[in-house]
């Protein structure tokens, strides 16, 4: 809340007495609109294992863990009853899957296997750097990613062409505990940026997840309809309304489902 004091002095006229009036005005602060970006499918493309269960199994075997004969079935089963909207870290899922077959994974083997299995090659999408830099010129910028694999988002950013200090806040579902479109995911990144969720412009590639910002009064910019070049141009011009652009041939090669579906590790 901004407070403004105003002093008004009235001079004397003849025998009239000088009067001084003091007024206090309270004005709500309206923070600059903040921009958040999705990571996978929006700013970068990542090459994931064609068979995630097999990739994790191979890493478990390397670590000396006895992989069950029916591992493919165990990997696909739901083992953790998480609340709606909650993220289940993939290592927790893998550990529970092994436990369901009475297999022990000591020395944090489940986490190590998952981290090693999902170590993809990264390609930065065209105009991603320009879009992030243009957004940073107008206010706070954050990253909000659905990702159930620990360390994956950080390693991805390091390998990408996006500067390491490009984001004022980085929030992943595996860290905050909530997956988009759950309101708590957007609230977490908004809080980290010092704004209200309604002040966010969220740029993403999936209306089912990234579009959740609209339920909180924010704006969703879909790169499936609006290429990153148009997003960058919009932020460079300082416009806050809808931005439109031509169709883009960039596609989303990731999916997401509730409760850390083991086939959808990042979005």
Can I get a quick summary?
The chain has 267 residues and is of the alpha/beta class.
DSSP helix fraction: 25-40%
**Strand tally, please?**
9
Low-confidence spans: pLDDT under 50, at least 5 residues?
Answer: 1-8, 23-32, 240-264
Number of helices: 9
Distance between the termini: 37 Å
Order of helices and strands: EEEEHHHHEHEHEHHEEH
Q: Taking all residues together, what is the mean pLDDT?
A: 85
Biggest sheet overview: 5 strands, parallel
Shape: elongated
Computed over alpha carbons, the radius of gyration is 24 Å
Structural class of the helix and strand makeup?
A: alpha/beta
Could you outline the blueprint of secondary structure elements for this entry?
Layout: E1 2-10, E2 19-27, E3 34-37, E4 44-46, H1 52-62, H2 71-76, H3 90-99, H4 109-117, E5 122-124, H5 128-136, E6 141-145, H6 152-159, E7 169-172, H7 173-176, H8 183-193, E8 200-204, E9 219-222, H9 228-237
Helix pairs in contact: 1-4, 3-4, 5-9
Offer a few descriptive terms.
single chain; 267 residues; two-stranded antiparallel sheet; 17% strand; elongated; disordered N terminus
Structural write-up:
- The chain has a domain at 52-117.
- The longest helix is centred in the first third of the chain and has 11 residues, at 52-62.
- The protein is an alpha/beta fold and 267 residues long.
- The protein is 29% helix and 17% strand.
- Strand 1 (2-10) and strand 2 (19-27) form a beta hairpin.
- The protein has helices at residues 52-62, 71-76, 90-99, 109-117, 128-136, 152-159, 173-176, 183-193, 228-237, and strands at 2-10, 19-27, 34-37, 44-46, 122-124, 141-145, 169-172, 200-204, 219-222.
- The chain has nine helices and nine strands.
- The strands form three sheets. It has a five-stranded parallel sheet with strand order 7-6-3-8-9. A two-stranded antiparallel sheet has the order 1-2.
- Mean pLDDT is 85; it is low at 1-8, 23-32 and 240-264.
